[in-house]
Amino acid sequence: MPPTKPAVALAPVPTVKPARIAPVLSSVQGKIQAARLAQAVPHLAAAYSHALARWAGDPVLRLLGLPIITECYRSPERQDELYTHGRTAPGPVVTYKRRGESNHNKLPAPALDVAFLLFDGSVSWSGLLLSKFARLMKAADARVHWGGDWPNFKDRPHFEVLV
Ligand SMILES: [Zn+2]
User: Fold this and answer.
1) 137 and 92 part of one domain
2) From the CA of 76, how far away is ligand 1's center (Å)?
3) Please, are residues 45 and 37 in contact by the beta-carbon 8 Å criterion?
4) Which of 32, 71, 130, 155 has the highest local Cβ count within 10 Å?
5) How far is the CA of 120 from the centre of ligand 1 (A)?
């Protein structure tokens, strides 16, 4: 008679999902965010703060990433540099505005750009996350315009208000 086969030990099925931690800013990152937010015109800053609070208070959204301001006020030199992208410099076109033409060039600025800090420390410009955040921004203040709604050049990280 062949020996009895040992029972195959089944690996236990995990019943708990891996812990997922909402990303948080370091103190330095927090200071940078506060400084950028302070460059915005008051009603844009208020709309952003309101949308951010709603995002951070949502049990699902907060795990997807943390909204961050990548840029608010933009110097004329930086605008010139961005304008070269996709023209005399490699990469895609990122702006159609020359120095002084962008709402980012005003101070206080009626425009800001948003991305998401992910829990692994990387930064995402996910169109899905930006569209979710745009809903909160527009709900916070009807004067907010989202670059993702523009008919031609979709600028999804971009939010601005009319002044
Ligand atoms: Zn922008």
Assistant:
1) no
2) 14
3) yes
4) 130
5) 25
